[in-house]
Amino acid sequence: MNNISDRFTFIKQVAIDAGKLAVSYYHQRNKLNIEKKKDDGQDLVTVADKNTEQFIREQINQQYAQDAIFGEESGYTQGKSQYTWVVDPIDGTSAFIFGLPSWCISIALLDEQQNSQIAVVYDPVHDELFHAMAGHGAYLNDQPIQVNPVTSLNEGLLGVGISSRMPPERIIPFLDKLLHAKGMFVRNGSAALMLAYVAAGKLIGYYEPHLNSWDCLAGLLLIKEAGGVMNNYQANDNFLLTGNYVLASSPEVYQQLDTFLYSS
Questions:
Q1: Is there a binding annotation on residue 90?
Q2: Does 88 belong to an annotated binding site?
Q3: Which residues does the record give as Mg(2+) 1 binding sites (predicted)?
């Protein structure tokens, strides 16, 4: 447990320091060279993403050189310990580029069984550090957080996400059912941040037809530690590399949301 606790203390500070680096690019975003991934104008990357991930990797390598690292921008680096860090240096790159504040740094730590042990989601624009260690609750800065105790979809906002990897048909039926149930949704461009908002009770849930592991592992642990429920993201074989859908929410509305995925 001390190994986990030490890593937890360590990575919270790394996230904050990485946030300072990312914010420095954010305030000079008009000077950044923007690249498209796979020629997709909705999937962008900048030197800010690459250098922020490189900073996080360097910090981990200095302190825990035996740990594996899986990052969105630089891929997988094999380790010799039982731990794997999963890193998204800037989740919400499009928002970042266009001057919207809805982006964050997301870092999770997996153990040998690929169970999440640590979650850190840092929003440096608002200086909000969402963090959790398995079995010890979830926090926003120094305050414990819990999911929203709603009993109806009409009592809050649901976060949703969709990417150009998915056809519109994968999200439109869900939204149709949500709206007919008198629910309402928001999308801010950062799955990791919206998942953290679910953990903090700001949103009542979140759905996206497909998320990569670096986008959601930290957020899912935050929600679990804050009393929420979710689908078994790890049920998908090789989830770390291939991803899965994500549905997570307050306990009282999960079953209704789940039916939206399967009912005609």
A1: yes
A2: yes
A3: 72, 88, 91, 215
